[in-house]
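Table S4 entry, Olfactory receptor.
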Amino acid sequence: PVEIEKMERSNVTFVVEFILLGFSDLPNSRKLLFGIFLVIYMNILIGNGLLIVITKTNPTLQTPMYFFLGNFSFLEICYTSVILPRMLIDLWTQKGNISFLSCAIQNCSFYILGVAECLLLAVMAYDRYVAICKPLYYPIIMNHKMCVQLVIASWITGIPVLIGLTYQIFSLNFCDSNKLDHIFCDAPPLLEIACGDTYQKELSVHVAALFFIMTPFLLILISYIKIITTILKLPSTSGKSKAFSTCSSHLMVVGLFYGSGSIVYLRPESSHSAKSDKIFSVLYTTVTPVLNPMIYSLRNKDVIAALKKILPK
């Protein structure tokens, strides 16, 4: 046993950097992929940037709903900026080297921002619940101080747990390989190349994902059950359609974000494959941030009117 222990120790190498394989299995498509992701990233920056500007400057959009939307757009920009610029550099240079510390920072930032998005989507659902189910109390409940506190809570709630989780993952020993078959530093590929028994760490990741994905989701679900039952009691059809239209944009964003995120983090280990993980990761890191401004602007008369004011005819 002592010899085996010595051999195991000697096989453990201290990893100084990781190599993100990304799309190395598609060498001929690198330039095309670079072009596609550059266009996607520019769209995310412009679309969400415009939403931030109009929700801050337009007098008709100074309501809690648009305050949360502006913050959500800012989160979307931060969230994709943790992943996409790095991915674009890797595609352009055809190198995927990332230092141990940069990998840990990327992993931790990605999780903190992802959890903040989940919680902010729950806050936005609560806002719609108060607006539709308790309209007379809405200005009192959703005052500016309350809105600011809810946004701050969304940002900071997950930080201590996620820093602890990142520390747990990166305190593992990494043996034979430092190659991550993924587009960024994520827990599943890191746990794959770790040596020894990683069951406890995998369990920690799943428990954290379950808690931070499912708790806000259940809050959203409860809010919308109450919203729908209230809307169905409304006497007029126009009142029903107006109430539904204010919620439909939010529901579409929730469906996109939660759908793709849950597939990656909550499905069983046996159904994981590097290729499918990459596809779903691309989906939830790019599709929601790209579509978010479109969903909110195309389905919202106030946003369209505000955009017309600031954009040239």
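The beta strands are 17-20, 97-99, 179-180.
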